[in-house]
């Protein structure tokens, strides 16, 4: 297996081992607290846009005096907004880069607090009637990458190369993906392309919803996007090391890390060491990490964090 993919899979396996090794406790119910009011500004991930909307709407039913402003322009916009103090929360669909942490530390003297608030997977979508049974990791790289660092022997550019016959062979594979400020783009580049270069024919979209819509409505299309944006018009392909061990994208395969492109979703916040968070920020994060908050995760099509991990995350903000 390529070293880039091996490293990413090992890091994710370590995270999962720590998350799921202990007996799960039930997440606590969220209890309304007095004196919660003010404004929350969220700048970051498009993948988390719908989930932020669900969390904020539910939170506002508890606290009508709270106002939210959510800007979902990509994970790469979260760190500078937090560093500069223009955002309260930074939703991200990838981990912080070392350079982003260094810049935050240079400004504030300490690193930001990073919380795992949901789980997701990057799906390879095709139109729902497409008969393709699945893809190997080398095939995905050969389809989306110009460099083929994952070992594909040749580019895959049309459906006949994948065994799919059409009326106008050779029919090209129309590719859709995210733009470069997206955490999904950056993570897919590492996990699926072995940190190679995207093919110039990948049509970059501003959000995962746009990718899914494009795949559903375009003949011969394929795209990668956050699984939580799946609609009835598309199908998520099973993927695997070989065509004999294709893994479907399910709750179980995401949680046990057998699906190759599983990931955590994060909320990043500016919390000075040994100092409490402001009341509003603390209560919103406590809500996100409660039973009610994780129910919204499931409602949006993502996967809730294991209960014992929720408890550890809550201790970081108390």
Automatic annotation (TrEMBL):
It comes from the Bacteria. GO terms for biological process: cell adhesion; phosphate ion transport. The keyword Transmembrane does not apply. InterPro entries: PBP_domain, Phos-bd, Phosphate_ABC_transporter. GO terms for molecular function: phosphate ion binding. Pfam families: PBP_like_2 (PF12849). Residues 1-24 form the signal peptide. The keyword Transport applies. Residues 34-291 form the PBP domain. Involved in the system for phosphate transport across the cytoplasmic membrane. This is Phosphate-binding protein. It comes from Alteromonas aestuariivivens. The lineage of its organism: Bacteria, Pseudomonadati, Pseudomonadota, Gammaproteobacteria, Alteromonadales.
């Amino acid at each position: 297996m390529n070293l880039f993919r091996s490293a990413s899979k090992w890091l994710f396996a370590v995270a999962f081992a720590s998350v799921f090794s202990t007996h799960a406790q039930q997440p606590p119910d969220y209890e309304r607290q007095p004196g919660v009011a003010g404004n929350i500004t969220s700048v970051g991930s498009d993948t988390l846009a719908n989930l932020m909307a669900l969390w904020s709407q539910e939170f506002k039913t508890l606290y009508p005096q709270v106002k939210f402003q959510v800007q979902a322009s990509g994970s790469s916009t979260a760190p500078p907004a937090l560093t500069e103090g223009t955002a309260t929360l930074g939703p991200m669909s990838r981990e912080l880069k070392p350079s982003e942490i260094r810049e935050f530390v240079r400004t504030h003297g300490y690193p930001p607090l990073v919380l795992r608030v949901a789980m997701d997977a990057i799906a390879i979508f095709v139109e729902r009637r497409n008969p393709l049974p699945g893809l190997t990791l080398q095939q995905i790289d050969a389809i989306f990458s110009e460099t083929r660092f994952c070992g594909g022997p040749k580019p895959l550019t049309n459906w006949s190369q994948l065994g799919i016959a059409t009326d106008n062979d050779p029919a090209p594979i129309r590719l859709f993906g995210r733009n470069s400020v997206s955490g999904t783009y950056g993570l897919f580049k590492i996990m699926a392309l072995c940190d190679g270069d995207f093919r110039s024919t990948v049509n970059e979209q501003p959000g995962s919803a746009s990718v899914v819509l494009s795949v559903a409505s375009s003949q011969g299309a394929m795209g990668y996007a956050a699984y939580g944006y799946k609609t009835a018009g598309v199908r998520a392909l099973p993927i695997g090391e070989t065509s004999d061990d294709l893994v479907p994208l399910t709750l179980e395969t995401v949680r046990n890390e057998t699906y190759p492109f599983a990931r955590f979703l994060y909320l990043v916040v500016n919390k000075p060491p040994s100092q409490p968070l402001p009341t509003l920020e603390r209560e919103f994060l406590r809500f996100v990490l409660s039973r009610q908050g994780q129910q919204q995760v499931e409602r949006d099509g993502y996967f809730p964090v294991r209960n014992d991990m929720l408890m550890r995350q809550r201790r970081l903000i108390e």
